[in-house]
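Quick question, first post here. What does this chain look like in 3D?
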Amino acid sequence: MNAPEMEVHRNVDDPVVRYALDEILRDSLESTYIDDDYYAKLRHDLVEWDTVGTPLTPEERNAYEALVLHESWLLDRRAFEQWYQLYSRQCLYWVPAVRDMPDPEAGDPQKRVTIAFDDRRRMGDRIVWLRTGVAYSQLPPSYTTHVNTGFVRIATDNPDEVKIRSQFIVHEMRDGHALQTVPGWMGHVFIREDGELKIDRKISCLVDGHRSHHNLTFLI
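> Answer (accepted):
Ran it through. Tokens below.
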């Protein structure tokens, strides 16, 4: 048994991970919220993301910036089940296959190919797939370091949401492969769900998202 397989089996046998995976599988039974209205909301998001942001207050840094940094920390430790719990019940993880700041037409996921477009069910599928230990594009598995900076708050029409945009660089390494550097910006939409701050939608826009890439099956 090689090292990646040992890591996968150790993680899956952990009771905490096992419970989380069971919960993820229950979530995968239905996904009913991606519809025309949801796509229209995403196109409107692109309009708002393209506006000038304002620096975060200390209170906003403690709430929103801290949660983005915690998300990156979990991803860099391959704690995918805990990462999944940061998201709302009707969430989205989206990586467009277009340039740095897509407009509503070029970035429309209803009409355009994407690198990733995961609702909660698909996010769960991705985690289970990563935990199988037999996903070819993740043999050996990716290890990452996320660097987030330049946090600003973006004005939004929805009083129940908070939009935070930041710049990022992700370094990704797989044994036997060259180090990969992925730069861009990301936008997080935060909501309160059952009194808890959750990520409702996340978009990660790569500077070179329109170009072909060696392997983007890791989480950005």
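Confidence is low (pLDDT under 50) at residues 1-10.
Residues 31 and 121 are 6 Å apart (CA to CA).
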